[in-house]
Amino acid sequence: MTLPPALANARPAHATLRAMGLLALLLIVLFVASGKVSMQQVLDNARQAAPLGIIALGQALILMMGRLDLSVGATAGLANVVLASAFAGDMSNMPLALTLTIGLGLLVGLCNGLLVVTLRIPSFLATLATSLVLTGGLLVYTGGSPRGSIPAGFRQISEGWLFGVIPWSVVIWAVIGSLLMLFVHYTLAGRKMLFSGANPVAARLSGIAAGRLVILSFIIASLMATLGGIMLSAITGTASIGIANSYTVDTIAAVVIGGALFSGGVFLPAGAAAGSLILFFLQSLLYVLSLPPAARFILQGAIIIAALALANLKKDR
Amino acid sequence: MLEGSFKFNVLLTLPALVLTILLAVVTGALSPNFVTETNLANLATRLLPLGLVALGEAMVLFAGRIDLSVGSIFSLSTAIVALTSDTLGWYAIPVTLVIGIACGLFNAAGINLFRINPLVMGLATAAIVKGVTLLILPSPGGEVNYELYDALFGSERLLAMPLFLTIGAYAALVVIMGWTRFGRSIYAFGSDQRAAFVNGVSAWKVDLAVYGVSGFFAAAAGIAVSIKILSGDPLIGEAYTLDAVSAAILGGVALQGGRGSLIGVLLATISLVLVNNAFNLLDLDTNFQNIAKGLIFVLALVFFMRGKAGEA
């Protein structure tokens, strides 16, 4: 209590440290299993985990507000299909493609926010309905076979390495995460959000218009999902339907590993990042052990249960 | 106080009733094929799985919980039936039902043992069950004993097994929910957990019961569909989760628990099946079906949830 709040916020939370410890442990296991220590390989994995990580940042913000966004997977899938079809493999279409994709993403977020705040629909149902409409809309738009592709120039954001040392996608991920952290802890709107997520009643009594902040959080989450979808498109280079569906549950698992609470009021972007990496490394481990792809779903569910069970048992003591 | 009275429950079922009649009249007027014995039998066949899943989901919602794993349990059941009905024959059905119940109990255990948010527990269970399903049946296939098909769907008439089973299941649970101490305790637990606890209702018992029932019906619905399509499909149930919640909400079941009637749920299920049927009969682009269902869901939520600030 003696630390000024700004400094207290800057200190990593225990949950974040736990997640990072787990990540380190996992890395050691991976190194031992593969028999060599390769930073290159770790960074390459991180490069591929960036879409998940960016989307998880948005989910972390939503959980901070005590809500849940079950439409992030569908939104990322929307971004993938729209981006590829607007690009049509031609780099000169970039301004149009990016504007259209991000604009649509913001619109999805606005819809989610309005459904939750104005129409007072519980967030998980509202976003579930949104994802149903988005999935249906994509099928109508593409007729089931999406077209277009991402030009090689744009794919550099995921294929390229800054100074040949660190992948661009990791840089983008880190920058977005830092910006969100600064937004939440050092701007008035962000701190109001944190407060109203931690204690909605107290926030309302203090005159904070939580409704608008909730809408804003859904817009940011959809923006993150869209950016994640764009990063994913840069990795795959093509459009495919349902490619991002698993992200919905994956992001929940990632932020829960990173210490997020469903009661809201906790925002740990570093924890969410560690959680995303853990999830991704576990999946590569499954791949290395040549387990069937189905095992990842079991892992996903088991991780969510284990992380929440640990957090809740600890709280009981 | 109107809430909970018989009149109030009738009021709750009105939107679903109106929607059902509207859809039936419009489809009937636009398509000569609507009121034919074949189509009505087809409707009953489609009503059976969704009706059963929605029934289980409604039971969970009565208790103020939610079960988002029904779709996965549904898929798992189709896989189990498709893989075992050749060797086990009729015994495949009870085996599958028991596995469905076990999945439900797993939900209840996670919620009560580890205090996991029911919503998230459902998502986690759904992921695990989906993984298991994909392990035992990676792609649609398997084979279902034809004898089962004959027994369940052999007669192409309206008044046949599918309709009888649906009505039987609803009738049994209407009796249990309305006239037994146990049914009342589920409503009581849903409307006020603390008050129910103080009056001797155990959360463990209620959760085990409602999630067990929900798993049972999800499995039963999966069995029906696998018999209908004579094979298993590891992903066929995905859409049923939202449809089931949608049907329950449209039927007037409160997400906060403690309110709703099964008659409303049955009517809402019928109207959702009619939406599908209308798309088929009127030759509309089936891709619009998801959008239409999503909009109905949102409208139902807006209609019933307005003014309630309950947030999961």
The mean pLDDT of chain A is 84
Secondary structure tally: strands of chain A: 2
Measured by DSSP, the beta-strand proportion of chain A falls in under 5%
Enter the CATH topology name of chain B: ABC transporter involved in vitamin B12 uptake, BtuC
User: What gyration radius of chain B follows from the Cα positions, in whole Å?
Assistant: 19 Å
Topology of chain A as a string of helices (H) and strands (E): HHHHHHHEEHHHHHHH
Q: Which topology of chain A does CATH recognise?
A: ABC transporter involved in vitamin B12 uptake, BtuC
Mean pLDDT of chain B: 87
- Percentage of residues in helical conformation of chain B: over 70%
**CA-CA gap between termini of chain A:** 22 Å
Radius of gyration of chain A: 19 Å
Report the biggest beta sheet of chain A as strand number plus sense, adding barrel if it closes: 2 strands, antiparallel
What is the CATH architecture descriptor of chain A?
Orthogonal Bundle
